Amino acid sequence: MIRLADLVAATDGPQPDDLDRWIAAALVTPLQDADDVVFTDPDQARVQLLCTLHYTLEIEDDTLPVVLSLIDQLYQTRAQLRALAAAVAAQDAGVQRGIVSALANRKVELP
Amino acid sequence: MKDPYEALGLSKTATDAQIKAAFKKLARKHHPDLRPGDATAIARFKEISAANDLLKDPETRRRFDAGEIDATGAERPPQPFYRDYAEGPGHAAEDGFADNAAMEEFLARAFGGQRGGGQRSGPRETLRARGQDVSYALPVPFLDAANGAARTITLADGKTLQVSIPEGAEDRQMLRLKGQGMPGYGGGPMGDAYVELHIEPHAFFHRKDDNIHVDVPVTLREAVLGARIDVPTVSGPVAMTIPKGSNTGSVLRLRDRGLRNRKTGQRGHQFITLRVMLPTAPEPELAAFLDGWTPRNPANPRKEMLP
Fold this sequence. Notes:
The complex is a heterodimer of chains A (about 110) and B (about 300).
Chain A: E1 2-3, H1 4-9, H2 16-24, E2 31-32, E3 37-39, H3 41-56, H4 64-89, H5 93-104, E4 107-109
Chain B: H1 4-8, H2 16-30, H3 41-56, H4 58-65, H5 83-86, H6 91-94, H7 100-111, E1 134-140, H8 142-147, E2 149-154, E3 160-165, E4 174-177, E5 193-199, E6 206-208, E7 211-219, H9 220-225, E8 227-231, E9 238-242, E10 251-254, E11 270-277, H10 284-291
Parallel strand pairs in B: 1-5, 7-11
Antiparallel strand pairs in B: 2-3, 4-5, 6-7, 8-9, 10-11
Helix pairs in contact in B: 2-3
């Protein structure tokens, strides 16, 4: 957990008005305390990602939500894939082999 | 610790703008949140970040160039990346995979991709295997299959394959493109790509073995009096003679105008079934002629169908 003031003060931290804009656009959703805004560890990592995207890769404000949304969808898909892979791993060896070979032999229709 | 200039692919004389541009380019490629399945991205990104931290500040760059500090001084404390949280907490313990690498290995096995690529540590390094074969189904227009064709196909991952469709290719024929499959593991050879040809039907040509069958309409005059007409073949129009007195259902043969047999090299034939077409617009003279016409050999064509 880190408070907004500390996050902004850190080296490589976000510019205060950039962070305000990201919060207003719900790109990151910190906890709103009575008198302070607090970031959990995942929130903080997400702000770091926003900083890299915006400051280093120079992704502009209007494209930033698009990129972030794609990254979020990718992680969501990976979480589902992980769950699927775990479900496969819980099956008998024969079932696992069947699934792996069905995937390996699948055909891709070309346009 | 790698030399920071080398890490960014720059020479010692690089300008500040070149350093910034090089870092931006490499960050775009290696940022761990842009390569979530790649186990080595964190190490690579750390390396280029450290190099950038050292070189972007003129003072630390001067001291490094003068040999006062070495590259290790710029190493960062471990930075948490969003991907450490993004896929849900505690998965390692719950889902039966010891670590991320175990899942990536399962996915590589299942999908044949180069997930989590790069060097792996430990016993996995000894794994050396031929890349996976991949199969594709390629729709082929009828005439491309008849005459042979070269096609370039673009795969989902942007890779292109050159496919040479042989003359007389058959439906469901499988072409093997050696070394065009997935990359091998640990220096193993590439897998092969298999392309199954799905030949599309043609509007009027039909294939039977090496022969082509086609229905050709002729006019009443051409059928009764005979004519020389152009008929389509798979390799273009060919002139042929319609004998006098041809009828609907008459079959004519064009020798060696079929498809080339892959094994014997011989060409099949084209069989033409004639269809006599009456005029579609009113022809009062024809009607008047038939009205006064008594056939020399009257016959009921429905004789066999009726009791």
